[in-house]
Each structure stands twice: as structure tokens, then as C-alpha cells.
Automatic annotation (TrEMBL):
Keywords: Hydrolase, Nucleotide metabolism. This is dUTP diphosphatase. The lineage of its organism: Bacteria, Bacillati, Bacillota, Clostridia, Eubacteriales. It comes from the Bacteria. GO terms for molecular function: dUTP diphosphatase activity; magnesium ion binding. Its EC number is 3.6.1.23. Residues 77-191 form the dUTPase-like domain. It catalyses: dUTP + H2O = dUMP + diphosphate + H(+). GO terms for biological process: dUMP biosynthetic process; dUTP catabolic process. Belongs to the dUTPase family.
Length: 194
């Protein structure tokens, strides 16, 4: 069985010398399945995704256990592990009360929640944080580096940031060339004022 695009760019299958459109094939299969009177259950796309288990060591009893809420967001909220007061212009590392052993070949991306600035007036000083799989010791606590734009108090248990994990990028090789062979596109505002 081979996959092709027909002349209209529609996905087709080549089965036993005939081109069969996906819609036609799906309808034929659904009709055959429905003929036996049993309900047809279509899995949710996340059901086929690779599920991962992450070892977490909690370093504070002031935070709730991490929770992945399927279907709501791919991001997991992280909480301040202690009360922190920041004066305007002050920066601090806010402990998140966790250490993790990420799966091999993955890294974590840590970013502020959409409400972090509104609720607390803080910014993440490194824009986003990247935590690689080697940062996995018992006391390798995760922190949120914050700078306050106004006086603020963050309480233990407040949700201040979020994370997700991503696979490492593939190994890269760089080739030096005299020309890339493409027209210049421009950048840094070159496409217009609005």
C-alpha cells in the first residue's frame, strides 16, 4: 500500500493497482464496522501519543503535586515553594520545590504563565528557561528567576510559571558555503510599519 496525492492534492491510497481516496476508504471501513451493530469508538489523538513517566522529588510540603491535565494544555503549572517579597526592580531566584529526572533525550522549557505579570508584576529574567536531562540530582531544585516591576508578594503555592518537555533537536552539521542560492527576504521590520 502506497500513499499518493491525486491531481487535486487529495490524499489517496494505491491498493492492488487502484487509487482509493481516503474518504472513500474510511466510509467503506465505517460501513463495514457498523454492520455488526457494535458502536464505533474513535480514539482521541492523545491516546496514541507516547506517554512518559517523570520522576519528581518534592523539596517542599508547601506545594501541590504536579498535575498534567489532558485536553486542557500541554503545559504543567509550577508553584512558588516559599513566600517571596520583591521590591520594585529587585531580582530573586524563586524556588519551585521540585527536582526532576527528565526522560533521556528530553529537555524542559520553563516560561511564565499568561497571568504571571498581571498577578505579580514579575518577569522571567532569562525569557524562558531550558533545563536539560543532566540536571537531575536529588537537590537540583528548579527555580524561577524573577525581576519585579512593582512591589509584590508571592506566597508559597502560588502558580507563577509553567513547563513542558520537548525532544532534543537532532544532531546538526554546519556547511560553509559562498552563497545560499536564495533571494534576500529582509527582516527586523523590513516587511512594513504595520
Amino acid at each position: 500500500m502506497l500513499r499518493f496525492l491525486d491531481k487535486y492534492g487529495v490524499n489517496c491510497l494505491h491498493i492492488n493497482g487502484d487509487f482509493v481516496g481516503y474518504d472513500s476508504l474510511v466510509n467503506t471501513v465505517l460501513d463495514a464496522l457498523a454492520a455488526d451493530g457494535k458502536p464505533i469508538v474513535c480514539p482521541h489523538p492523545s491516546d496514541s501519543a507516547e506517554a512518559l513517566t517523570i520522576k519528581v522529588r518534592y523539596l517542599s510540603d508547601k506545594i501541590q503535586p504536579l498535575e498534567y491535565i489532558d485536553g486542557k494544555s500541554d503545559w504543567v503549572d509550577l508553584r512558588a515553594a516559599e513566600d517571596v517579597e520583591l521590591k520594585t526592580g529587585e531580582s530573586k531566584l524563586i524556588p519551585l520545590g521540585i527536582a526532576m529526572q527528565l526522560p533521556k533525550g528530553y529537555e524542559a522549557i520553563v516560561a511564565p504563565r499568561s497571568s504571571t505579570y498581571k498577578n505579580f508584576g514579575i518577569r522571567q529574567t532569562n525569557s524562558i528557561g531550558v533545563i536539560d536531562e543532566t540536571y537531575c540530582g536529588d537537590n537540583d531544585q528548579w527555580y524561577f528567576p524573577a525581576r519585579a516591576d512593582r512591589h509584590t508578594v508571592i506566597h508559597a503555592g502560588d502558580r507563577i510559571c509553567q513547563f513542558r518537555i520537548e525532544k532534543h533537536q537532532p544532531q546538526l552539521f554546519f556547511e560553509s558555503v559562498d552563497t545560499l542560492g536564495n533571494a534576500d527576504r529582509g527582516g527586523i521590520g523590513s516587511t512594513g510599519k504595520r
